[in-house]
Design a protein that fits this description.
The complex is a heterodimer of chains A (316) and B (250).
Chain A lengths: L3 E4 L9 H13 L4 E7 L4 H8 L6 E6 L8 H11 L5 E5 L2 H14 L3 E5 L1 E4 L2 E6 L4 E7 L6 E5 L16 E3 L10 E7 L13 E5 L10 H10 L2 E4 L1 H5 L20 E5 L5 H4 L7 E6 L6 H4 L2 E4 L2 H11 L2
Chain B lengths: L1 E5 L2 E3 L21 E3 L1 H15 L5 E8 L3 H11 L3 E6 L6 H15 L3 E5 L10 H9 L3 E11 L2 E8 L2 E8 L2 E5 L11 H7 L4 E4 L1 H4 L7 E7 L8 E2 L3 H10 L6
Parallel strand pairs in B: 1-4, 1-6, 4-5, 5-11, 6-10, 7-10
Antiparallel strand pairs in B: 2-3, 7-8, 8-9
Helix pairs in contact in B: 2-5, 3-4
Classes of the chains: A alpha/beta (316), B alpha/beta (250).
Chain lengths: 316, 250
């Protein structure tokens, strides 16, 4: 019988949407017993309540201690290892949080880690993308591997629902010695009122063709009209037009919105790896031969500085 | 400070990969191979640390068949001091690789291990974290900034929410992201000089490690492709199409 433990990702107040997607992955392994651990500071009750409300969760484990108020992998990992007894699967979202943490947990347990699970074939067999998503590998854990440790690719799973019932929340304590060699100093974040890029149903992105940080105003205006998140290609981030947290692609965020509008983005393979699970892709580009048109459901060739404002005005 | 940089030989990032018809991986025969681009950034960073007077020696290590010496030579031509080649034709996975690297990091007494955040072939993003865990030392993954002050390093990490500043005590493992630096080009005379630098060859047995893959591949397939859709001529048409799909209000 399998028993899954998910490590929740949150910012201290709000649960990250990738956790509910990881839950869907976990339920595909075993719908009978999925528990979620919340490692957080002393005030993490709000996050625990959000986790408890998710449909299909059997139990929430609350590990509240001062050291857990910021996500440092070297601090979280020994606590998760201590919790691991009795579980057959330990899974976190395949975000920078989960990718940082889970290999450390796996190595401490002496087992391999499976990155970017996109489909569960059997409790020990999974599909995952390799070569920037240009090939799909079906991997099976070797016999004798006692626990599967891995990360679930958020773009491959729909978020589990919430609100039907509340799972019990249990406070747990661990005795693991926590290292002091890694010290979190701060998070530098761009203030934004727009929806979260990773979970937004609609995303408008700009690329090198936008030309400058100021010119990104046309992208933001369309995004705001649609209630969409704003994203960017690597080229736009490298050029310094916008901050790294807006980057969509192999490096950056892998997303699956219902609607993705790419403006002035040529469609490098690394960018396409980040959007291939999108519902509808719209491309606006002046180069009719740009690779983005090979994957776009709807394309329009022309100057983005004419077309994007025109689209914004035409939308009801 | 002594720095160990770990590099992997992979299919060149410009190659459009093809899945073998029998599902046994991707075609690598006759395909251009290169140093993993993230590892190249790690080599460059080590060189800059040394040039700034913060390191005395840079050792580069690679695991694999005889051919990985080509990539070691490239790193030596860039400016690394010496190489270690762990020669094996076995399937080496991240946990095994990290056990070998641990052995080398400890026997060489290095203060910093630099490597790419992931290799662009299997995209695992694990080896640095696993090495740090086995070594019981700090890890700073996704680094786009790195500076030193005594026995400490301050790293800027590119995380989903923005830029995280993490301070770690040395020795530490740092995995590097794209925007940390732009690697230098190797000049022909440097390539010639690199031939005189030493590469020590070791076996798995020398390092006391067995290959023991924990994961096996049952088959590789191409992804479901997206088909090109249609081009529209006007914004008005585009809006109608989006409305027909229920993506925007009528």
């Amino acid at each position: 019988m399998t028993k899954v433990l998910i490590i929740a990702e949150h910012d201290g107040e709000k649960l990250n949407s990738s956790t509910a997607k990881t839950l869907t992955c976990a339920l595909a392994i075993d719908s009978a017993s999925v528990e979620i651990a919340v490692l957080g500071g002393l005030q993490c009750d709000a996050v625990c309540d959000q986790v408890a409300a998710l449909d299909g969760v059997s139990r929430v484990l609350k590990l509240a201690r001062e050291e857990n108020s910021v996500p440092v992998a070297a601090v979280y990992a020994p606590q998760i290892v201590e919790l691991a007894a009795g579980y057959t699967h330990l899974i976190a979202p395949s975000t920078t949080f989960g990718k940082d943490l889970m290999p450390r947990v796996a190595a401490l347990l002496g087992v391999p880690s499976v990155t970017d699970v996109m489909k569960v074939i059997a409790p020990d067999t999974f599909e995952r993308p390799i070569y920037a998503g240009n090939a799909i590998d079906t991997v099976q854990l070797a016999e004798g591997i006692s626990v599967m440790v891995g990360t679930a690719r958020p773009a491959s799973f729909k978020a589990a629902g919430s609100g039907s019932a509340a799972a019990p929340i249990e406070a747990v304590e661990t005795s693991a010695a926590l290292p002091t060699h890694s010290r979190y100093i701060e998070l530098r974040q761009q203030a934004s009122d727009r929806p979260d890029l990773q979970s937004a149903p609609k995303v408008v992105s700009g690329g090198r063709g936008v030309g400058s940080g100021d010119n990104f105003d046309v992208i933001y205006a369309l995004a705001d009209k649609l209630g969409a998140a704003a994203g960017a290609s690597r080229a736009a981030v490298d050029a310094g037009f916008v901050a790294n947290d807006m980057q969509v692609g192999q490096t950056g965020k892998v997303i699956a919105p219902d609607l993705y509008i790419a403006c002035g983005i040529s469609g490098a393979i690394q960018h396409l790896a980040g959007i291939k699970d999108a519902g509808t892709i719209v491309a606006i580009n002046s180069d009719a031969d740009a690779p983005i048109f090979e994957v776009a459901d709807l394309g329009i060739v022309g100057d983005l500085f004419t077309l994007v404002p025109e689209l914004e005005k035409a939308l009801p | 400070m002594k720095i160990l940089v770990c590099i992997k030989r992979v299919v060149d990032y410009n190659v459009r990969i093809r899945v073998k018809p029998d599902g046994g991986g991707v075609v690598t025969d006759g395909v251009k191979m290169s140093m993993n681009p993230f590892d190249e950034i790690a080599v460059e960073e080590a060189l800059r640390i040394k040039e700034a007077g913060n390191a005395d020696e840079i050792i580069v290590v690679s695991i694999g068949a005889k051919q990985v010496q080509e990539q070691l030579r490239t790193a030596l031509a860039m400016g690394a001091d010496r190489g270690i080649h762990v020669e094996t034709t076995e399937n080496i996975q991240p946990l095994t690789a990290s056990r070998m690297l641990l052995n080398i990091a400890q026997s060489e007494g290095v203060d910093l291990v630099l490597l790419g955040k992931q290799a662009i072939d299997d995209d695992n993003n694990q080896t640095g974290q696993m090495l740090a865990a086995l070594w019981d030392r700090p890890q700073a993954t996704f680094a786009s900034g790195l500076s030193f002050d005594g026995g400490k390093a301050t790293t800027i990490r590119e995380v989903d929410a923005g830029l995280e500043v993490l301070e770690v005590d040395l020795p530490a493992v740092v995995t590097v992201d794209l925007r940390l630096n732009e690697p230098r080009y190797v000049k022909l005379p440097d390539m010639m000089k690199a031939k005189k630098k030493t590469i020590d060859v070791k076996t798995l047995a020398d390092l006391g490690v067995e290959a023991a893959p924990g994961v096996s591949s049952l088959g590789v397939r191409p992804p479901e492709g997206r088909q090109a859709g249609k081009k529209v001529e006007t914004v008005e048409e585009l809006v109608k199409e989006l409305q027909a799909r229920g993506l925007v209000n009528d």
